[in-house]
Amino acid sequence: MRQDSAKIQGLIAPVIQAMGFDLWGLEYQLHGNSALLRVFIDADAGVTLDDCAAVSDQVSGVLDVEDPIPVAYRLEVSSPGVNRPLFEAGHYARYQGEKIKLRTQWPVEGRRNFSGVIQKADPDVVELLVDDELIQVPLQAVARARLLGELEVRKSRS
């Protein structure tokens, strides 16, 4: 995690936890004179739109006081959703056996894009089954990863 992201996470995690939510992760993108901060929250009971709005208000207050972002920024708060992003080793371990899409910062075994099933994860490496081949991807190389979740669609009763 970049230093600026780590600083922001350290500021907002206690606030989010005090509200009864888990900070699933964050994405911080700096674009010249502006920035985008995406904050993903989770809870055992799920996350509602009202929850996201309440967390956004509290996080915004902390960021206004502490001022860790040197430019104008947009704050987005949401649940991780079905296709949730994976940010840390524990996320990969939690979803062992699930299909993910992963992009690396540099080529790993000659490629940067992977779609496969998590076989195992440790603090440094995630092992994926990709096209009947086991591939070990260093977590340090991961630029972004998401679950490829499936929604169950139910037919309404008529």
UniProtKB/TrEMBL annotation:
Coiled-coil portions: none
Signal peptide range: none
Keyword Cytoplasm assigned: yes
InterPro entries listed in its UniProt record: Ribosome_maturation_RimP (IPR003728), RimP_C (IPR028998), RimP_C_sf (IPR036847), RimP_N (IPR028989), RimP_N_sf (IPR035956)
Keyword set, alphabetical order: Cytoplasm, Ribosome biogenesis
Compartment(s): Cytoplasm
Residue ranges of every copy of the Ribosome maturation factor RimP C-terminal domain listed in the record: 86-150
Entry superkingdom: Bacteria
Keyword Cytoplasm: yes
Major localization class: cytoplasm
Function of the molecule: Required for maturation of 30S ribosomal subunits.
HAMAP family assigned to the protein according to its UniProt record, in alphabetical order: RimP (MF_01077)
Family stated for the protein in its record: Belongs to the RimP family.
Record-given protein name: Ribosome maturation factor RimP
